[in-house]
Amino acid sequence: MVLSSLLGTTVEWYDFFLYSTAAGLVFGELFFPTTNGTVGTMLSFATFAVGFVARPVGGLLFGHIGDRIGRKRTLAFTMGLMGVSTALIGVLPTYEQAGLLAPGLLLVLRIAQGVALGGEWAGAVLLAVEYGPPGRKGRFGSYPQIGLALGLALGTGAFALLNNVLSDSAFLGWGWRVAFLVSLVLVGLGLTVRLKIDETPAFRALRKLKQPPRSAPLVELLREPEPRRHVLLGMLARWGEGAAFNTWGVFAITYATSTLRLDRTAVLLAVTAAALVMAVVIPVSGRLTDRQGARHVYLVGMALFTLSVFPAFRLFGAGGPWEFAAVLVLTLGVVHAYFYGAQGTLFAALFPTRIRYTGMSFVYQMSGIVSSGITPLIMTALLAAASGSPWAACAYLAFTGLISIWATSRLREADLHIATGPSAQGGQTKGEAAVAAGPSGAAAAVAGAGSLSGEASARSR
User: Fold this and answer.
1) How many whole angstroms separate alpha carbon 413 and alpha carbon 190?
2) Residues 385/301, Cβ–Cβ less than 8 Å
3) d(CA 158, CA 18)
């Protein structure tokens, strides 16, 4: 199960981040040629943002399917869709070869990528969290988050390797395409593992209740007061995380190569190194989540991000490639990993099992339009408006962090549907309290709190 969840998210994020890396390095020149390099880059980032606009569509579509027919089959389809879309980008004609058809096809495939990833993230996290035993749900929930770090490392690492071994003309001509075509091999491996796993215990227990379905998950999500409140607070809590990652993992590449004039290969290797450190730190965050609680870990990490923004850009401008790499390892590899490792478990705890896939997808993907998708555009525009000075962009990032700190602090531990930290050891969530009340409470808890069937039966005895 852990391997399936981790491998699946790694492949999906590899595919998605290939586009972000290419958007900053080659797509502006190949698909959006203009006399103004900044305009070409912004057009390229605009298609990058479109993927985030498409992600809520995939989140709602596959969230509904996942809450109705299960996590396993839904995740197999999202992986296949992502792999085919990414591979097709690798064979697209350029603007010089096909004119406006080239960016048009690129846009369509980016939308397909967004739809696929929109359904992948929540399902992969649920696969891990709903399998996780009591007291270790934070650790299990952190495993699919590692996929983001590994996907970023593979994506930037592939481009760094190709850029280093090929001439500039060969890299722009055909080298970048190799990284996209490799996706087919990774997807084949991922599907082989994913199709062998069983459905999650929590979903199987829910199906055994044989209760008639309520209204559509999205309707229930937005109609009931508590889920509606958690949707709003979850989206605001996500804002800082999305802005942080797409600054350090996407915008920083263009900023370093275009504004700071650092070597492209060195910058890509720095991002790769930071992503690898991130992959190591995320499980540590998961263990802290089991000890301190997902809300606490996420809140502390977001505060660290907010405090680090101005010093990070100060050091960016004062140093060379080694200083850039050191800052990126600290901000992306350590600080971001600290709160990102707790995020999946925290967001899963916001919703009951019957609407959890839809709820998590809605929060993560709808907020991603602003928090993630347009961040590189906003940062590029603020940088241009300030004639290359980064301080207006830094102020924007700090603002997103403060909003997320406020929203996370407004989440009440007693309202969470999955217990982590001290509450997992001695306290009870609402659903767990219902289990202790007897058989009728146990049924409500499985449907509402998402406890595992074994955990529920053990407590009811």
Assistant:
1) 35
2) no
3) 9
Quote the crossing angle between the two packed helices 101-129 and 337-348, to the nearest 10°: 70
Burial of 213 per CB tally in 10 Å (0-12, 13-18, 19+): exposed
On whether the CB atoms of residues 11 and 186 are closer than 8 A, the answer is yes
Burial (CB count within 10 angstroms: exposed 0-12, middle 13-18, buried 19+), residue 167: exposed
> Chain-centre distance of CA 241, in angstroms?
9
Tokens coding 278: 């991130």
**Residue 315: exposure state from Cβ atoms within 10 A (0-12, 13-18, ≥19):** middle
Q: What pTM value is reported for the model?
A: 0.79
Q: Which residue's structure tokens are 């850039």?
A: 324
414-440 pLDDT, tens digit per residue, is 899 988 888 776 544 554 444 334 334
Burial 391-429 (b: 16+ CB within 10 A, else e): eebbebbbebbebbbebbeebebeebbbbbbebbeeebb
The answer to whether 342 and 298 have CB atoms below 8 angstroms apart is yes
Name the token pair of 332. Answer: 């992306």
What confidence tens digit (pLDDT) does each residue in 82-110 have? Answer: 889 999 999 999 888 988 898 889 888 98
Dihedral of alpha carbons 143, 144, 147, 149, sign: negative
As a whole number of angstroms, the distance between CA 442 and CA 361 comes to 26
Report d(CA 281, CA 289) in Å as an integer. 12
Instruction: Locate 415 and state its tokens.
Output: 């309202």
Q: What are phi and psi of 192, to 5 degrees?
A: -60, -40
State the Rg of the chain over Cα: 22
C-alpha torsion sign, points 130, 133, 138, 140: negative
Alpha-carbon gap, residue 151 to 188, rounded angstroms:
16
CA diameter of the chain: 73
Copy the structure tokens of residue 372: 């993630």
What sign results for the dihedral spanned by CA atoms 102, 187, 343, 300?
negative
CB 354 within 8 A of CB 444: no
Task: Answer with the residue of higher pLDDT: 375 or 202.
Answer: 375
Phi, psi of 416 (to 5 degrees): -75, 145
Pick from 181, 175, 138, 152: nearest CA to 21: 152
